[in-house]
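On clarity, I found the account of how folds are encoded harder to follow than it need be. Since the whole study asks how a given chain folds, the encoding of that fold should be made plain. For illustration, here is how one protein appears when written out as sequence plus structure tokens:

:::
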Amino acid sequence: MEKRVTGLGGVFFKVNDRPAMHDWYKKHLGIDASEYGTMFHWRDKDDQEKMGLTVWNTFKKDSKYFNPSDKDFMFNYRVENLAELMKLLKEEGVQVVGEMEEYDYGKFGWIMDPEGNKIELWEPIEAPPANDEK
């Protein structure tokens, strides 16, 4: 397996007051987030027809989504062939959290790093090229 992580899929962090934090980020940094965060769209450097996105979002302070990590943040990394990568990581002794899940926008798996940070791995469902966005 050549590629493992292909890019940053998302940055997630816990906050005490989501609406207030979204307002602050909009006012001061221009990040206009909904309940589901915001998406930064970009083009693949090797194939300009290929679109991608990176998600930025906040979670409630008491969210259990980052468990078993006790950290207030989680990174999401884009990967290719998640099933193969999860198998390989498990063979390498990496702690796998839960079972792989699949949605209409991609497959997800979770692991822990040695310092207790939960990492989300995402194999996105690639959208067809957007020829009208040139």
Notes: The chain has one domain: 5-133. The longest helix spans residues 18-29. Confidence is low (pLDDT under 50) at residues 129-134. Helices lie at 18-29, 82-91.
